[in-house]
Amino acid sequence: QVQLVESGGGLVQAGGSLRLSCVASGSILSINTMGWYRQAPGKQRELVARIFTDSSTDYAHSVKGRFTISRDDAKNTVYLQMNRLKPEDTAVYYCNVDAITIMTMSVVEYWGRGTQVTVSS
Questions:
Q1: Is 101 in contact with 25 (CB distance < 8 Å)?
Q2: Strand-pair partners of 60
Q3: Among 110, 116, 100, which Cα is nearest to 20's?
């Protein structure tokens, strides 16, 4: 089993910045794709950004140029640097990883519990 713990959410004014972190722990053999999703009230969960094992990245169009995803494989951690935040970025942000554990010996998708990001206008 893999546990994901997110941190770094909070309340910020429009134009401000936040940095989210997500640490994965457990009987992990390897982590493949790591990513961030978000869900605003009344909306479906959507991909924000993801980073692959070769460090290539993929971003939602709405955050390109403002958000940067990165990973530290030595720490099993993924980060999301969010700059020039807008009120429409307000949502619960969820960490997502694809990992292989000693128990599963295959790739399984895991989700964090989420961290609230609120951007005031």
A1: no
A2: none
A3: 116
Half-sphere exposure of 98 (CA within 13 A, CB side): 8
The answer to whether residues 39 and 25 touch, using CB atoms and an 8 Å cutoff, is no
DSSP secondary structure letters along 101-120 = ETTT-SEEEEE---EEEEEE
* Residue with the two structure tokens 């457990």: 26
> Tens of pLDDT along 51-96?
999 999 999 999 999 999 999 999 999 999 999 999 999 999 999 9
Sheet containing 77-82: which strands, arranged edge to edge? 2-7, 18-26, 77-82, 67-72
**Do the Cβ atoms of 67 and 81 come closer than 8 Å?**
yes
Please report the pLDDT score of residue 1 as a whole number: 87
Whose structure tokens read 């000693």? 102
Q: Which residues are CB-contacts of 93 (< 8 A; sequence separation ≥ 6)?
A: 6, 9, 20, 36, 37, 38, 48, 80, 114, 115, 116, 117
For residue 17, what are the CA distances in angstroms to 13, 20, 43, 80, 85? 8, 10, 23, 10, 6
